[in-house]
Please model this.
Amino acid sequence: MRLTNHPILGPAAPGREVVFFLDGVAATGLEGEPLAAALKAAGVAVHRYTKKHRRPRGLFCAVGRCTDCVMVVNGRPNVRVCVTPLEEGMRVATQYGAGEGVK
Ligand code: FES
Model:
């Protein structure tokens, strides 16, 4: 099952299958789909861990409002992956705290 009409990003164009990297491991998704959708299809539920209590967080609002889905994308922390289109070769990492690095 794939998201075909995102309330923020709009209708999905039929994208080709591309490779991206999650915590250094290759995965595939459809180019242009929300990165969160590709992660969900790959079975990923945890996107980040909170700073204070190290609690897991993942997709919540899915429209770019809550920041629960933020991850480190291409070295940049705090990227809301629910409203970020997937691009070939993206490097996505689980975020710990404010994204100061892998713990
Ligand atoms: S899930 Fe809420 S901002 Fe992405």
User: Anything to note?
Assistant: The beta strands are 5-6, 10-11, 17-22, 25-30, 48-49, 56-57, 70-73, 76-80, 91-93, 95-96. The mean pLDDT is 91. The two ends are 33 Å apart (CA to CA).
